[in-house]
Amino acid sequence: MTDLPFQDDRTELPFHDRRDAGERLAARLLQRAYRNPLIVGLPRGGVPVAARIALALKAPLEVLIVRKLGVPGHEEFAMGALASGDVSVLDEQLIRRLAIDAHALQRVIDRERGELRRREARFRGERPYPSLAGRDVILVDDGIATGSTMRAALRAVRKLGAERCILAVPVAPADSLASLRSEADETLCLATPEPFNAVGQWYRRFDQTEDAEVRACLAEQAYPETQH
Predict the structure, then answer these.
(1) Which of helix, strand or coil describes residue 114?
(2) C-alpha–C-alpha distance, residues 48 and 8, integer Å
(3) Nearest one of 105, 81, 114, 99 to 180, comparing CA atoms
(4) What's 128's DSSP letter?
(5) Strand order in the sheet with 87-90
(6) Which of 2, 49, 66, 191 to pair with 102, CA 20 to 30 A apart?
(7) Backbone angles phi, psi at 164, to 5 degrees
(8) pLDDT tens readout for residues 8-29
(9) What is the DSSP letter of 15?
(10) Using CA atoms, how far apart are residues 57 and 79, in angstroms rounded to an integer?
(11) What residue ranges in the chain does DSSP mark as E strands?
């Protein structure tokens, strides 16, 4: 794993919006050389950020579906995540501490797996994932909170055959970023401010990204790819 020498807590915050965050990430990524790069955004908020990177790097844009597994009754707290490719990540320590039984856990998994499949159909249709063999995959979100969603995404991209995985986010808490370093070959995070309460606090505009915007980003940045 390599930390890109770009992480800089002097980054001017807040970001204006996701487009601004993507352009700033792209400026840093352009300083590096990547082998046949593929930009992968996490929907929904990560896709507009990833689209600006794809445009700058003249690289294709893809989407990877990831679903957070929320603690029953406190769904805002993540106990794991699911990702395309039948990848699951569970916080076993948290599950034991909260005494979440196997049946309750499975209900959450089944519900989120169903939603994952619906979103795959919505954003990808019948399109297979492009071959990742021999490619540098740059995985992008609009920020990181606990890191469980990004961890599942990194493992999914590995499972799909990526040569190298580069994690690129505008902002994240330092401890969550540190916990992901063993999962990625390179990490780029523009700022790790403290205290960190939520991703949205570091943006002036943090409107919910709608499905239509995700589809529009994918259509606009659809570079020809040979499907395998």
Answers:
(1) helix
(2) 22
(3) 81
(4) P
(5) 66-71, 74-83, 87-90
(6) 66
(7) -140, 145
(8) 545 789 999 999 999 999 999 9
(9) B
(10) 35
(11) 2-3, 38-41, 61-63, 66-71, 74-83, 87-90, 136-140, 164-171, 186-191
